[in-house]
Amino acid sequence: MPATILVINGPNLNNLGKRDASLYGTKTLADIQDDISAQASELGVEVTFFQSNHEGSIVDFIQESSTGAHGIIINAGALTQVGYSILDALLDAGLPFIEVHISNIHARERFRQRSVFASNAIGQMAGFGPSGYIYALDHLSSVING
Selecting from 3.40.50.460, 1.10.1040.10, 3.40.50.9100, 3.40.50.1390, what CATH number does the domain 4-145 have? Predict the structure, then answer.
């Protein structure tokens, strides 16, 4: 049975393709998910996608879906700095996770530079555009599959 990786996107990521292209590029979330699915197929892993603008919904998804999963890729968007309940759900899940940001949060406003997830993630991809999801998938797949 192939490994399953949860790919979670937080607030406003449903508006990719409409947001500031200089920061977020022109791909929609659906385009990014198609790219991730294609790479997952090549790697022999399954992916399950989830997006919500609501913190509690993200927590519910992690709690409900982590039992059958092997790892998590998360772009918490604007919840990166304040999503302690998401962090608790990730820690409770006990799965390796990688944090992804399309823009380089470390080169942006000071309030965006802090992440409540970073010290518990096995890695962080920031500033690689949508390719950051692919890099995260490649690495997480190698961690899971050895």
Answer: 3.40.50.9100
Give residue 106's pLDDT band: very low, low, confident or very high (50, 70, 90): confident
Cα separation of the two ends of the chain: 15
User: Residue ranges of the alpha helices (H) in 4-82?
Assistant: 21-24, 29-43, 55-65
The single residue of 24, 54, 84, 133 carrying the catalytic annotation is: 24
Domain boundaries, the chain: 4-145
Active-site residue, selected from the candidate residues 101, 106, 133, 139 = 101
**Structure confidence by residue, pLDDT tens digits, 66-92:** 999 999 999 999 999 999 999 999 999
Report angle CA 80, 85, 90 to the nearest 5 degrees: 80
CA distance 4 to 23: 30
**HSE (side-chain half, CA atoms, 13 Å) at 116:** 16
The pLDDT score that the predictor gives to residue 2 is 92
Question: pTM of the predicted model, to two decimals?
Answer: 0.94
106 is catalytic: no
